[in-house]
Amino acid sequence: DVKVTQSSRYLVKRTGEKVFLECVQDMDHENMFWYRQDPGLGLRLIYFSYDVKMKEKGDIPEGYSVSREKKERFSLILESASTNQTSMYLCASSFLGEAFFGQGTRLTVV
Amino acid sequence: GENVEQHPSTLSVQEGDSAVIKCTYSDSASNYFPWYKQELGKRPQLIIDIRSNVGEKKDQRIAVTLNKTAKHFSLHITETQPEDSAVYFCAAISGSARQLTFGSGTQLTVLP
Prior knowledge:
Chain A is mainly β. In chain A, 0% of the residues lie in helices and 57% in strands.
């Protein structure tokens, strides 16, 4: 059974803080993704990675960066958190197209 | 990049009726089209998918159809039940780009 685990379920951070969201998968998948989910906007892709140290911008990369030093771990970084980054963040890994999601991190920036 | 549009955003049906959700995509190179179901407070999970070499696929009460010429695909749920109430997302992936792009979601409510 594929397991994708996000480090935190809920997170509250202050404006201007540097925030790290961690994601780990245990199925040796090459592809990993970070999405944010907002009501009425669906799942919007922030960044994805198809190999270690490789990254590609998604549709809304502004204000975010990522790191993939090991195949199983994909980190999302908010360099300087802002209130408009308050959202649900979902990590996923994929094999042959099928995506497996983490449980999500609800981030609130105050 | 790929753009996926999904309609309707909300859909209410009576229990036992059918529900249809439609999506269009922009990248003619896209070749894989999954559908995900997200129940309240839970993560999205794959319920059915279709690849570009197939026009229709069925799994019990759910089916997906694909029209590559028109670049649209649809999810059909028959004999709906209250447990079908959830948000449904369509998605598309281009083999070359590897990017999985989602539609904006449809909140389906099945009324008892």
